[in-house]
Design brief:
Layout lengths: L21 H16 L6 E4 L3 H13 L7 E3 L8 H9 L8 E4 L4 H9 L12 E5 L14 E6 L1 H4 L3
Parallel strand pairs: 1-2, 1-3
Antiparallel strand pairs: 4-5
Helix pairs in contact: 1-2
Length: 160
């Protein structure tokens, strides 16, 4: 899942510090409710430590009844390249089945395009793509094709 829409008005803040915009604060719980409705129950949630990403993860977690204290913040998700994102996933335990990564573009767009038959130009803010991948060990993630089973983003469903 990509972080929700961020606020660019305070030019004194770094990219890392940017908060969510008003729309982002509305979209994240909305998408969380959609995730809940789809019956998606992650075992783990990983988030970039960037303000906009961790805030999105928390707002979504509240909607899906995932304990906020169990969100795992991982430095390497922020500003990750596709190879770095693959490296992060390859470290996962083979026993781990369901997880959400809250991160950033362009790596998320590239990851989805690599793992599925979707051809996305730009993974929108607050979008989520559920992918099922037929592998026994995450170490093989780069060499596997999965199937997109869920792809949604706020503008597709909301009237503004």
């Amino acid at each position: 899942m990509r972080h929700a829409k961020s606020n660019w008005t305070d030019t004194q803040l770094t990219d890392f510090e940017r908060p969510l915009s008003g729309r982002g604060r509305t979209d994240a719980p909305f998408m969380g409710a959609m995730i809940q409705q789809e019956g998606i129950k992650p075992d783990f949630i990983f988030s970039s430590p960037a303000n906009r990403s961790i805030t999105t993860a928390r707002l979504v977690s509240e909607q899906i009844n995932f304990p906020l204290k169990n969100i795992i913040i991982r430095e390497e998700i922020y500003d990750a390249t596709l190879p770095e994102l693959f490296g992060f996933i390859e470290e996962m335990s083979p026993d781990l089945d369901n997880f959400i990564i809250f991160g950033h573009n362009p790596a998320l767009t590239q990851l989805i395009n690599k793992l599925t038959d979707l051809e996305i130009e730009n993974f929108p803010t607050c979008a989520i793509c559920g992918i099922t991948i037929p592998i026994e060990d995450w170490k093989n993630i780069q060499y596997t094709k999965g199937e997109s089973i869920f792809y949604a983003f706020p503008k597709k469903y909301r009237k503004f």
